[in-house]
Design goal:
Two copies of one chain form a homodimer. Chain A has 351 residues and is of the alpha/beta class. Chain A contains 13 helices and eight strands. The longest helix of chain A has 15 residues. Chain A is globular. Chains A and B meet through helix 5, helix 6 and helix 7 of A and helix 5, helix 6 and helix 7 of B.
Chain lengths: 351, 351
Amino acid sequence: MIENTFYTDESTQGRYELFDLGDLLVEENAETLRGATLAFRTLGELNANKDNAVLVTTWFSGTGKVMEDVYIGPTHALDPRKYFIVIVDQIGSGTSSSPHNTPGAQSMAKFPQVRIGDDVRAQHKLITEHLGITELALVVGGSMGGQQVYEWAVRYPDMVKRAASIAATARISHHQVTFTQALQEALTSDPRWNGGWYQDGTDVRDGMDRMAKIVATLGWSREFYQEERWRTILGMSSPDDFINGVMKAYFEPMDPNALLTQIWKWQRADVSRHTGGDLAAALQRIQAKTMIMPISHDLFFPPNEMEADAALIRDATVRVIESKEGHFALNGFEPAYIEQVDTILRELLSH
Amino acid sequence: MIENTFYTDESTQGRYELFDLGDLLVEENAETLRGATLAFRTLGELNANKDNAVLVTTWFSGTGKVMEDVYIGPTHALDPRKYFIVIVDQIGSGTSSSPHNTPGAQSMAKFPQVRIGDDVRAQHKLITEHLGITELALVVGGSMGGQQVYEWAVRYPDMVKRAASIAATARISHHQVTFTQALQEALTSDPRWNGGWYQDGTDVRDGMDRMAKIVATLGWSREFYQEERWRTILGMSSPDDFINGVMKAYFEPMDPNALLTQIWKWQRADVSRHTGGDLAAALQRIQAKTMIMPISHDLFFPPNEMEADAALIRDATVRVIESKEGHFALNGFEPAYIEQVDTILRELLSH
């Protein structure tokens, strides 16, 4: 267990609460994560009918902070004046239970291997037992957050009225498995990684920096590089300035074990685990009105893979978000991105 | 200097000759590569007019062997019964002068940093002084070979009658720079790399394997993974089987320093070095009838970047090669690929 104030300081994470999960059975591995916690924050109020709750999930390396800042507010579809919005940080996010903040026998390299399904079961406990919610007007998330959306809609079909998956598929592709393995290997090949037993996350800076560069090759679109959007959108002065000042700087304060916990989940997300590998059967369980929202230039979860999911869901609509940032458009660098998201979510919420 | 029979055995490389370049000035670095050699092979005969010579260049990790096997023969546009075909392996290819086969003071990590321009000057010497050729009916190559094609056409415009660049741009993109840096870092972060002073290339297997996986994420197209073409085209039984049996196995016998020498060149290819950074001015020097041949699903050198080059060349035609393999279609796994190449090159050679 090591201290990392990046995940605890209000200046970096805003305000969040910790929900005590008690002992969480990590289902498929049949291991119990003891004293597990979920970091969450709520905005708005639950109405009397308890039918205005919106669950927002988080992506790889993100926490509730970016979701709150980019996606939620009175100018957005996710308006706290109308909805009771619950943002939950995934396990391994650094804020919720993660290797570095877990004491004792499950600390650091001994942290259990958690799946998206474990996250969703933990979130279900928070939503139902702690917050007293039995129906979700919407579950929405991007990237790994979208993987959680699919898991929610398949695992708890009665509870999820609407689902919106932004830049995520229901089952990880072989391409993403290969890519995420490259990220893992960049981190774990650093000698100072030391099998997960570093003294401080920054010990693993070399591995983290290599990972950041690999992330940059697919996280942004080719057009992002072609049009030098690192200059116009991000205000960086050169490609090196962009890699150092955006990509490496972004990951540097994070915990390497936390990132690896997330990557392990990311590369195994697959709702067809519920149906013996039959993806169509899994997606047919979904009762939610579903919005499938690919990002036009996404190299992680390309539109045609998301459209293939949509074709297997009873009530799914595909709305492509146009953005030349590619996958990282999710971070809301451009007003045009979040305007499209808001329009699509308003359409979904109006039905 | 270490022995690597992969580069010298006829069973792996076919038959090639070595041309003694003597002392090659590595131009921009003002260093002299002493006792430099170029590996080359010729097929067919130079005609009396000396106007049927075709120069074929090589790509990253490739040598003349794959060019000979895939692109040349009586059924192909590059027919040795009609043309005198010269295939030249690039410096750092492992067969031509490379870190591991250079003795003495410039061996291994002390090998000079060579650019595409140095390669083309060396090839020019072979072509003119050794082979007595003053005119090239065609210069053709793919990927880094295409980078050499551009360099030839800009540097020696009077000599190059026709030029064909397959899957390559005239100036490297920022995206490719980032990607190739990730490859370098995968190799050089291996502790057994030891600053380039390993005892045997296989010492650096971990770094090579990591590099192979990163190459796999962009070298093949997303459709290659989506459609499990590693099964149908390559005959592999699973994604892991493909990564181990194709990607890692391909690079394993190669020399890490040789690959790094090539990557360093790859990420600096830029014909606008001749014109102070003005790409249009450089490409306007080209007198060759030029064929620009992107591969439809290429994530290294996407069609729109190649089309942008074509727009700056006086007599350039773009012909997109359709292949779902992406960049690695170059290796000729599919008959349909080489058939398209042959059709396009026949069209070019007919004028």
